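Researcher: Quick one. two chains, 594 residues in total.
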Amino acid sequence: MRHSGGVRARIEGQGSGGSETTVNAAAAISARGISKSFGDVRALRGVDLDVRQGTVLGLLGPNGAGKTTLVRILATLLAPDAGSASVAGLDVVADQNRLRERIGLAGQYAAVDENLTGLENLTMVGRLYGFRRAVAKRRGRELLEQFDLVEAASRPVKTYSGGMRRRLDLAAALVAKPPVLFLDEPTTGLDPRSRLDLWDVIEKLVSQGTTVLLTTQYLDEADRLADRIAVIDHGSVIAEGTPDELKDRVGGERLEVHLEDASQATAAAQALATMSDEQPLLSEALIRIGVKGRSGAIIEAVRRLDGAGVGVDDIALRRPTLDDVFLALTGHAAEDGDQA
Amino acid sequence: MRRLFSDTLVVTERNLIRLPRAPELLLAFTLQPIMFVLLFRYVFGGAIRVPGGSYAEYLIPGIIVQNIAFGGFVTALGLNEDMQKGIIDRFRSLPMSRAAVLAGRTSADIVTNALSMTILVVTGLIIGFSFQTGVLHVLIGLVLALTFGYAFSWVFAFLGLLVKSPEAANSVGFLAVFPLTFISSAFVPGQSLPTPLRQFSDVNPFTIIVNELRWLWTGQPSPDQLWQAFAWVAFILLVFSPLAVRRYRRAASR
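Model:
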């Protein structure tokens, strides 16, 4: 049985049907009530999650929200304090060893050996999967080709660029052709070009049937890659849906106005108030306001501010960011949720 | 068990391939021991009176034991670095033997220890050291030194996993091993030390190991404590390998 949405993540405590307490065996990734604490810090507070086979779930949230902890639990690196989860039909605690043959993990720091060459790294990983040396080497060559690293194959990784390292890290996760892939902030710290390249690679993998759980701090990344997005904050999933659904909840484009004089902020906010059904957000000389699908918003704002005698330094329309998602969903800015 | 063995080999190989590509580490195995031998033989040696034979004969077993005990610091550095850089996470996400990460690391030390021991023996032979005993004794001496070094690699594995940075691993290791080697019979006879230090030196495992190695290689009289020397090796191994494994489990599951 499949869920109509394919991917579901619920707000903790919302609804409690009997079927919700057991993991969904049909999903490639399924978690129920996963909790984990580190000392006094409750990193995860009962996370439920389903990812249908061959789809991408984007796990979106600020630093310290619990994204990495969740990935580490699902990838068998960490045992949950409570709850259960299955990946590729195997329990993450009871079947760890068999599960490790069926998952790939690529992290935000490229976990490859700097002093080994690209080929040596991949060969080592292959042999640790139990391949014979020759088989591991052949697979390594294949991956280097696929990831456009052939020329760098026999150079130590310390000579690689950030993007190359990240590609090698991803290649290492794919050595055993795992059906499920965990990508923990795969493009954090990469330049735009490398980011786009990596997105292409991930898309190709998914088109070949790989299930991906991807954590990210970037809405555009989730937007591009994810079939569904789960927003996580303070260790709980606070919203879930397709990228379009989430954006609607965030409220579309936002108008940012930098005033010449911060003391005019209140006057400016009043002048703009009726442009949106949201309250304008003030921080010193900066005013932000949602202008859902409103054409000519800049011209109208300038006209209104001019009419109110407010001097404007700069005015711009901006796509919603993670901050906006958080503001809309939680009422607090993303940084407030930052604990780790 | 087959997996443990083959995975350990893979990890050992990985650690050994790395070595020539980190030249600063390679210096520690090659030039540094030679420098120490020359320093002790020609700078301090003249002022040190030893019972029986020459100072060169006295010195070489001592310096080999010191050097081999320090050899494990590569394990401390390596594990700490792997931890920081996420390679341990990579290993843990693979269907490999968990113990192979530590076993492969410490096994690589056997190879590097053998390398620096060879360099020290050759240097020793040039400056006046010579084996005075039979082949069997010499071989038992080699085994004693290498197993002692291996046991100490586990001490360093524990330290490397305990501290936060590679730099800290280095200085903690230094603080632990330096007094142990110098307040022993490695470089000066125990009788020349002030009483409290001599008492420490007499029970110091380094003294026992060095004396036995000396006896095995040069036949210099020493109390017959060969079993004690191997007992110390076993003791260090039995205490520190479970400690390191436990620490590894804890440190890795964060």
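Chain B is about 80% helix and 0% strand.
Researcher: Thanks, that's what I needed.
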